Amino acid sequence: MHIRKITLFLSAFLLASLVVMAQxxxxxxxxxxxxxxxxxxxxxxVDFFAYSCGGWIKKNPIPPDQASWGVYSKLQDDNKAELxxxxxxxxxxxxRRGDVTQKIGDYYASCMDEKVIQAAGAKPLxxxxxxxxxxxxxxxxxxxxxxxxxxxxxxxxxLFNFSSDQDFKDSTQVIAEADQGGxxxxxxxxxxxxxxxxRDLRRAxxxxxxxxxxxxxxxxxxxxxxxxxxxxxxxxxxxxSLTRVERRDPNNLYHKMTAQQLEQESPSFHWAxxxxxxxxxxxxxxxxxxxxxxxxxNTELEKEDLSHWKTYLRWHAVHGSALYLSxxxxxxxxxxxxKTLQGREQLPPRWKRCTEDADNDLGEALGQAYVAKYFSxxxxxxxxxxxxxxxxxxxxxxxxxxxxxxxxxxxxxEKLRAVANKIGYPEQWRDYSKLEIVRGDEMGxxxxxxxxxxxxxxxxxxxxxxRNEWQMTPPTVNAYYDxxxxxxxxxxxxxQPPLFSPESDAAPNFGNTGGTIGHELTHGxxxxxxxxDAQGNLRDWWTPEDAKEFQTRAACISDQYSQYTIVDxxxxxxxxxxxxxxxxxxxxxxxxxxxxxxxxxxxxxPIEGFTPEQRFFIGYGQSxxxxxxxxxKRLRATVDPHSPDKYRxxxxxxxxxAFREAFHCKTGSPMVRENACRVW
Length: 680
Ligand SMILES: [Zn+2]
Hints:
Layout: E1 6-8, H1 48-59, E2 68-70, H2 71-91, H3 100-112, H4 114-120, H5 126-133, H6 141-148, E3 160-167, E4 170-180, H7 196-215, H8 220-240, E5 256-258, H9 259-265, H10 271-277, E6 285-288, H11 291-303, H12 306-321, H13 327-342, H14 350-374, H15 377-400, H16 406-418, E7 420-424, H17 442-458, E8 480-482, E9 487-491, H18 506-523, H19 544-562, E10 565-567, E11 570-571, H20 578-598, H21 612-623, E12 626-628, H22 630-639, H23 645-653, H24 657-662
Parallel strand pairs: 4-6, 7-9
Antiparallel strand pairs: 1-8, 2-12, 3-4, 5-6, 8-9, 10-11
The structure holds zinc ion.
């Protein structure tokens, strides 16, 4: 899951909650193109983002519980209320035990029962903490690591991540996978950056770790020393971790080896115990994404005392469970991860957090009710129709590419034709019958849900790939491309007004949702996606000359974006955002081509004072209306492979001759790049 080569449309990091309502057929849908959201005092050729979105930004200040606020997050947030109403009615339905309605209703009711949660304090963690305390040798750490997923600690947060994945080089098979992890800060780079703000952040992190351990009862001076220990161990693990840019190359993440080889490379961690404890005593081989990380882990296991490891594990136990404990834990967690790291002012209300949790843990149970209520078969048909039009545009685009030879074109077309289109929701719903949800047992529900998910992932090992599976829940306002499955996925949540509306003229619909579809499709052919073939295998299908041509064109884009400033003196890391930037440009070019052919027999007239071409681009620009807090901008600069909204707009249109023509921009205007980039 962590590793899967899927590329999201929006930052997953900050869109904590990805929930929305869908197609309602009420009269008052927000239009796809909203003239009152523009700022016509700015020239479209000077700053197209400000021109399209100036009015929206003035009208929509960032709410205190949000890190950023844009068209997508507003859609999520406004409509979270829809999921709330589904959950509330499920909670009061008195459904039969085991029913999907019982599960989502009791899960939500337990999460909302603040009184019970408050009274329990840190008690739900007792078992996990005792297990850690009882460790008598470092050799037993593997047992605790294996059991942490079952004890209320996210299996992704302590020591490393273990799951299953499609074999990069045999896309029909699922294998086991061990990946780097074990950090409390959001990225390895946070442990090393040496500017003043980064040093402040590390101080704040130490302070946070100390406070959390104090909440477990440790004395302040003891907890302060323990925080230093945590920092010491995590810094060493971070040193062994790959950077985000390194992780963009799938070849850097594929190291299939036998279980014996892994044991030889990191003998201080008892892998045999670990595999037995997670239910795979005879595991023979696996993918180790970052061998250097497991060497670093091994060195640390040798070097640090058992008491230090107990401290590290205690920290991760409380860190991984904080959100489900009493308010002292929730508030301290928010202080660091919400306020310090993202600039949020207020904790979101409890119902929002519980709705997000229900979406995370029971997404396809809640999603069933959501789709039944808000996503019509017609909406699905309309979306599919647009997807097919964009795919047809890509076919003619590839055929007419001036820089690619016929051989590579044939492979590219084969890959394009093999792309599976997944719209709205899964063909078959996930079976939650083995997951027990008990009213009044908040932590128990969360732990069982995590255990269920962990087991579900591991159960795939050694089995053929299920191509119907989704990596996102139906109400999610986001989309993704999966390079290993070669499919594009558009949850019901993103196919909604104001992003898409059957009541709108075609131009803004194509500029907005058409651009998103084109974006996902282009991911199959960006710097990362192009390394997978039609079947989703990591295999080079490019002639060396064509690969070189691609790289030259991609470099044009990374050079362009690397010059844009995010905040302070922090520039975009154009190598980190390359795939997204290539997809944004390719996506809008494809959407424009598809819109042209969609309307070729129609006589198009201006509407609301804008030509059809202008409406196409304003529709695109308005999909990115939004504002982000400075703290969140700094965070995103390191962790987010997407460029800021302003550049997802201006960076794209300034490369497109069709934009220049639509707005009659003069040579030398800021929105007309002298040496425009184009890949696809
Ligand atoms: Zn993307």
